[in-house]
Amino acid sequence: MSQHIFVTVVTPTAVAANNRGEGDGSTLSTLQKITRGNDQYTTVSADAIRWGYRERLQNYQPENVNRTFDPEADKYNFKDEKYNAETYIDDDLFGFMDAKKDKDNKDATTKRRGALEVSRAISLDPYWGDIVFGSKGGKKDNKSIHNTEVHCTAYQYTMALTPSSLKDPERAKFLLEAIPAIKHVGGNHARFLYEFRPESIVIRVTEDPSPWILGCFERVGESVGCSRLVRLVEVKDVPASELIVAGEIADTPYGKQLKSLGVEVKRGIKEAIIAAKGMLKMEVTA
Q1: Distances (CA, A) of 106 to 46, 71, 111, 136
Q2: Phi and psi, residue 231, nearest 5°
Q3: pLDDT for 186-243, tens place per residue?
Q4: Of all helices (H) and strands (E), which one includes residue 254?
Q5: What are φ and ψ of residue 112, in 5° steps?
Q6: Can you give the residue ranges of every domain in the chain?
Q7: CA–CA dist 262, 231 (Å, integer)
Q8: Which of 100, 73, 78 is nearest to 90 (CA)?
């Protein structure tokens, strides 16, 4: 059976403006939102998160990625515009699509579905409409003022990967190494810095094809809890032996409960990443 990796991340709490306005000079930048019950929550797209992982791979393994972003020219460059998942880790992990017609106007599209699946990031806290204002330098007129929606919150998202679906299953380790090093996620970072690295993390390495750990973190006072994850382990729907839990959650009553149930609980995120890499079997079944 194939081995699967599921990772749920909750970021630190900070003031976020992870939105995409129409540009750095936009006069209005709204946050993306979803409604849950009677409240609205802000959200960051899976594409924005994938961009952050692409950036990390570009910076640390430039020789192994096909698509690179040039911030000076504000454009992407390709080593091979026909793509090659055998050669390039980004074509393998994230997939590609080259839509085109052949000389007879028939479909000649080449594509590969990305092996890595990423959920939307959802804020842990409801959004109450916070807005900040700014203005351009120099002479002012009626177009000088801009406003930006901001949200003081933490974000939660989940990733799924089946290493045997990769052309090179060893590349799953590169993804795990990128998790604590992810940097720019979302837009508007000309004005804001927001950490998207894990403050707490749950890693599940399993032959179960269903993750079970999506949305397992919730806000508890000023901290974060994971009562649903504790319950899943207690009722044995998720075997304790398949889990690694790490970060600030380790110092909470939830971390202590999980440890008493046999879950591997670590205080350090990077220590957990090393342990998860050790659980991987690099078989190729696809």
Answers
A1: 32, 36, 15, 51
A2: -65, -45
A3: 755 556 688 999 999 999 999 999 999 999 999 999 999 999 999 999 999 999 999 9
A4: helix 253-260
A5: -140, 125
A6: 4-279
A7: 13
A8: 78
Backbone torsions φ then ψ of 157, nearest 5 degrees = -150, 165
Structure tokens at 194: 């927001």
pTM: 0.90
Distance between CA 257 and CA 166 in Å, rounded?
36
Helix axes 171-178, 269-279, angle to 10 degrees: 170
Q: Where are the alpha helices (DSSP H) in the chain?
A: 46-60, 89-94, 171-178, 227-234, 253-260, 269-279
**213 dihedral zone (left: phi>0; alpha: psi -120 to 50; beta):** alpha
List residues bridging with 178 in a β-sheet: none
Q: Which two tokens stand for residue 115?
A: 């092996």
Please determine, for residue 20, whether its predicted confidence score (pLDDT) is greater than 60: no
For residue 145, what are its two tokens? 């003022």
pLDDT the model gives residue 135: 78
Alpha-carbon gap, residue 195 to 183, rounded angstroms: 7
Q: Distance from first CA to last CA of the chain, Å, rounded? A: 11
Backbone φ and ψ of 271, nearest 5°: -65, -40
d(CA 14, CA 33): 17
The distance of Cα 216 from the centroid of its chain, to the nearest Å, equals 15
Q: Which helix (H) or strand (E) holds 52?
A: helix 46-60
